[in-house]
Amino acid sequence: MLAPLSWLKDYVDIDVTPKELEEKLFSCGFEVEELIEVGKDISNVVVGLVESCEPIPDTHLSLCQVNAGEHGTFQICCGADNVRAGGKYPLALVGATVYATAKDHVTIEGVMTIKKGKLRGYESYGMLCSGTELGLNEDLYPGAGYNGLLVLPEDAEAGADVKPILGMDDWIFDIAITANRPDCQSIYGIAREVAAVLGKECREPALDYTETAVQKNFKVEVAAKDLCPRYIAHYVHDVAIGESPAWMRRRLALVGINSISNMVDITNYVLKELGQPMHAFDYAYLEGDQINVRRANEGERIVTLDEKEFTLNSSNLVICDGVKPVALAGIMGGLNSEIKDTTTEVMFESAKFARDNIRKSSRALGQSSDSSAMYAKGVYEYTTVMAMKRALHLVEELGCGKVSSTQLEVSTGNSIEPKEMKVSVKRVNGVLGIEVPEEDMLRILSALQFAPSIDGDELTLQIPAYREDMDSYPDVAEEVIRMYGYEHVIPTFMPTAKVTLGGLNLKQKTELKIKRALCAAGAYEGVHYSFFSPSDLDLLRLPEDAPERKAIKLINPINVDLSLMRTTLASEMLYAISRNQKKGILEGRIFELGNVFIPKALPLTEYPDERETLCAGVFGEKESFYTLKGLAETVADALNVSFTYEAAERTFLHPYQTAEIFCEGERVGYLGKLSYEIQDELDMRVPAYVMEIDLAALKKWYGKEQIFTPLPKFAEEKRDFAFVVDKNITCAQIENGIREACKYVTDVNLFDVYEGIQLGPDKKSMAFSVVFTPQEEELTGEMVEGFVKKILKHLEATLDIRLRA
Fold it and tell me: How many angstroms separate the CA atoms of 461 and 447, rounded?
């Protein structure tokens, strides 16, 4: 969850640095996955006052004298159409860093350092900047979306750092929220925790508003109260749809939401601020003056705001007017009641829906949103009531409508008041294994808004309605210790504890050995999902009867791109290579050890065969088929086995640079160069190569002992051969023939291949270097010559191979 520091400060007086706050949040159970500095890549950019601006003849450029306060006055060449004398703009001084943009002046291509330059013969000592070059857009700062210079306020001081002026001195906390704390899936929820850990007061958002006397004859019915325990609707009239104020647009942008219009932005703002999804219906399109929350009829249809049509069933919850469905409850509103520029009346919705129903419907329909994600994690009725008040306050604050006195609320009667809990202090301390002083316990629980009191051994708490995770004394113990500090816990062994020696089994040791060998060869390990898309199989150009297409379909996939259990690792490896190249990484080696899932029958009647598989991919101008083959040999060396290779074909690989891999005659994998067609489809800029090895087939060789062979006592002999062979003869066939002919051969290396008209159209020359190693006696010249004749005779008889004249 993203939480801007500037937004948190609305509720808590934060007097520590962002880094210190990150550490304090971690200490009380909230991991900050990333602390994002908003203006991290921008430096040495100040307010520049253009004192003079003269056009450079025969160009679109202007020659400006720019006052940068204490930094001096600089001559700047500028091509923007809105530069003028007296204007104030961001000035990147020499040595500053800003974003580099493409020719469209919108697309960011990286970070650049400003240097002294010369344009049309005029020297330029810096650069006047647009909003895009500072990483800003229209939502983050008004005027930043203009394709020209960013205009700064008239009262900005020349030479001052632009970051505080533009709000670029902010920080964003990306916080991992555990499943038991959905109350912290909001800015205000995190603010409560920040206040507690800092020992500060937490201010509540403004909830006041003024109602008009306007009444609507409107009714709300909830037919599925088991799925919707509380539903609130409130009518707002005299609505003026327009742009939200800059402060709201900026805050939404910081948490990843684009501004749409004031009414829609209010619902999104409340979603992020309080963790309560809301919806705004255009009242003019609600037929029958009513809302009905019910299960959908079988085959009922709805078109959502993103213009997707869905066919529903009775497990889906819908919001209907008197005639038709107008929203998928908790997921997305209907296109037939969306807020438009012409909207003058709005019906706000704030509700609690059953989290399991929203989660299942979202997955079954393949439709998700920020609202559905929030409902799936959990929303409280306390927040449902609070959010409606907050939204109505914002309507009044923004002046975009008038709040009527027409509010309708249907609930099952659940209380939103604090509930009392009594626990034993002794049992709380017993869970922790330490004695927490009573004054510290009371201080901590008070800061968490539990209104504690202690009478003897009895601790009484008032649990807020938004803390449904608080059930008994272990929960109280957890709250106490995460604020008191885990460093107070003294580590001890349990009375019956025993220390045992752990270790890795043979499979784990072997896989670790393979990983280390590949890393030593310059490869990086990657991890991908165990699911893939039907389109991934199409990418590989696999025929319909290919075994890889016999994949297990998930009953309830997250989305269609993750709807099949993978039967190959190759497609995800190709996508990984493509993603790297699109990001400018044009060389690399990646490998993955993972399972493929091979069904024994479809539909499934028993568990599939989960086969451990190794996939490796290399890419770059310096990589080749042989560097990938080198990685295969690296695996073979790690297992203490030998691989052989035979030419093969794969639908997604180059027809003349593909081979199958064998170990002692058993096929264990393949390797090859990616076809040019798929390379172009994935927008790859450099060649790519991929390999898959079935580690399950190699298991029989796991743990194979390496036998030491002493160095020979006598000198080795080496001979070179140049053979004339048919073009269809492979290197492996000749190498195997040489080894079969003579037991003294220990090494065979191909060092030259030649084709020419003097050899004939169907012939080629292959030159090998052969090493003979003595065993019990020194090799004489006569012995070696005998070996040579034996080899030549064997090759001529088996492969019709002769020495080149």
Answer: 12
Whole-number Å distance between alpha carbons of 272 and 262: 15
Q: What confidence category does residue 561 fall into, taking pLDDT thresholds of 50, 70 and 90?
A: confident
668 burial via Cβ count (<10 Å: 0-12, 13-18, 19+): buried
**DSSP per-residue letters across 622-651:** T--HHHHHHHHHHHHHHHT--EEEEE---T
Q: Comparing C-alpha atoms, which of 533, 545, 544 is closest to residue 574?
A: 533
**CA nearest neighbour of 721 among 800, 795, 644, 645:** 795
Instruction: Tell me: pLDDT of 492 over 80.
Output: no
Q: Are the CB atoms for 569 and 616 separated by under 8 Å?
A: no
| Cβ atoms < 10 Å from Cβ of 20 | 12
Residue 569 to residue 652: CA distance in whole angstroms: 13
pLDDT in tens, 375-424: 999 899 999 999 999 999 999 999 999 999 999 999 999 999 999 999 99
Query: What pLDDT score was predicted for residue 188?
Result: 97
At residue 661, the pLDDT reads 96
Edge-first strand listing for the sheet containing 763-772? 745-754, 763-772, 717-726, 802-803
Single out the residue of 608, 535, 605, 523 nearest to residue 571, CA to CA.
Answer: 535
- The answer to whether the beta carbons of residues 151 and 35 sit under 8 Å apart is no
48, 67 Cβ separation under 8 angstroms: yes
Question: What single string gives the DSSP state of each residue in 15-41?
Answer: -S-HHHHHHHHHHTT-EEEEEEETTTT
Query: What's the sign of the alpha-carbon dihedral 239, 245, 249, 252?
Result: negative
Q: In what order do the strands lie in the sheet with 317-320?
A: 219-222, 290-295, 317-320, 325-328, 332-333
Question: Do 337 and 318 form a contact (C-beta atoms < 8 A)?
Answer: no
The span from the CA of 599 to the CA of 250, in Å, is 51
Q: What are the structure tokens assigned to 196, written together?
A: 């507690």
User: Rounded to an integer, what distance in angstroms lies between the CA atom of residue 525 and that of residue 633?
Assistant: 18
3-class secondary-structure state, position 43: strand
CA distance 662 to 660: 7
Buried b (16+ CB within 10 A) or exposed e, 475-497: bbbbbbbbbbeeeeeeeeeeeee
Is 138 exposed, middle or buried (CB count within 10 Å of its CB: 0-12, 13-18, 19+)? middle
Q: Would the pTM count as exceeding 0.85?
A: no
For residue 805, pLDDT over 90 is answered with: no
What is the C-alpha to C-alpha distance for residues 16 and 7, in angstroms, rounded to an integer?
15
Percent of the chain exceeding pLDDT 70 equals: 100
φ, ψ at 351 (rounded to 5°): -150, 160
H/E element holding 108?
Answer: strand 108-113
